[in-house]
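Known limitations

Structure tokens in this collection are predictions and should be treated as such. Users comparing against experimental data should check residue numbering before alignment. To illustrate the layout, the record for Exonuclease domain-containing protein is reproduced below. The input appears on top and the generated tokens appear beneath it.
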Amino acid sequence: MKNTEYAIVDIETTGGNASGSRITEIAIIIHDGKNVLDRYETLVNPEQDIPPSIFGLTGINNEMVVNAPIFDDISEKVLEMLTDRIFVAHNVNFDYSFVHHQLEQAGFKWSAKKLCTVRAARKIKPGLGSYSLGNLCNSLNISLENRHRAGGDADATALLFSLLLEWDDAGEIEKMIKKTAQDQRLPPNLPPDDFNNLPDKPGVYYFYNQAKKVIYVGKAINLKKRVSSHFTGNNINPQRQHFLRDIHGISFEVCATELMALLLECTEIKKLWPTYNRALKRFEAKFGIYQYEARNGYKYLAIGKVSKFQVCIHEFSSLYEGINLLRSLAERFEIDHRFCKYSKSEEGDFFQNNNPQSLPDVLMHNAQVDNAIDYLLNNRPSFAIIDKGKSKEERSCIWIENGHFYGMGYLPSDISIHEPSDVKNYVTPYKSNQYIEQLIFSYAEKHPRKVFFKKHLLA
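Generated tokens:
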């Protein structure tokens, strides 16, 4: 790598993300691969308070930076030192995101090739217990002074970088610097093999934190492409920065179709409730239809909010959907609408204002309510969705029983399917919910040729 120069950078900041925090100190060391050519270090007035927790870590407080230059005042010097040089840092995306953001705010458009010494160390010195800067310095006998200050950490990173260049017999650093090097964009704590093992197939992927706990579940049409999209771009949103730093591992499960991946994603999120999954958590059913018997012996049907302390007959994502179904049942089974509660606002006992002689026979009425519930529970559609498998030797199958997702799995291509039981024998049972059922019914409506054994339908 002739004529290649590196800008080894370390910064201290007021917080963990570039969008809401600012640089309080910066050190830049210019290196030609053998020797240090230049060095720059300064405190920076962040124009915001330094939190006590940051002072406890770095020792930098508000008094120390009050007379320091603001970043705008040093931006030209920083840009000059970084231009046409490879940006090197320990956990490079953190430092790069701050410097890029503050240069942009100062009016400069700048970008650079990046090199992460965490990743380089993992490749060149695999098998170490920890790749934090402090632990690496201990393991490799690198002198580390003035810890958690920009100058001290930059000096240590420069010494580490020199050793990595010396030990790099396989040319790993040169590969990493190439613009196409995928693992330069990976989170710093993620082993590259976890990403490299991802296939170009549909499925579900799992992100794990340091404690091996699942923190995110996602589905993909193409696993490698979808996971890669999490790591591209220069998004400085604090949630994304925390998310990326928390990823220490990836696993995956290949699915035959996008629908199966979507169903597995939903069930896994429901089961694992990962920290960073927010979107699908909003699709939890909010309303349900309930049946109760009053002291006068009459049975009621009511729409109410879903509660973990009450078992409902059927769930809905919206009050509107529940009201429509209850009205449909009341009309189909000729249930007196006075015994249907459509909202919480309907308070009081209508018997006080109604002539008991105008009420239906209690036994006949209760039988009509029972018939409506039985119809709702037992006369919804049962069917299979049969589609391509993960290979030519199999087919995928999804089974719906009485309107509820029963399970999914794979069956051999060379067997004949004549009865629903032939499908059910090959599926793994999963828990159902209203959102999953909505996905399956929508798919079945769009792809009727993939639907088999369909019977019964609630109008």
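For this record: The mean pLDDT is 86. The first helix runs from residue 52 to 58. Please report discrepancies through the issue tracker.
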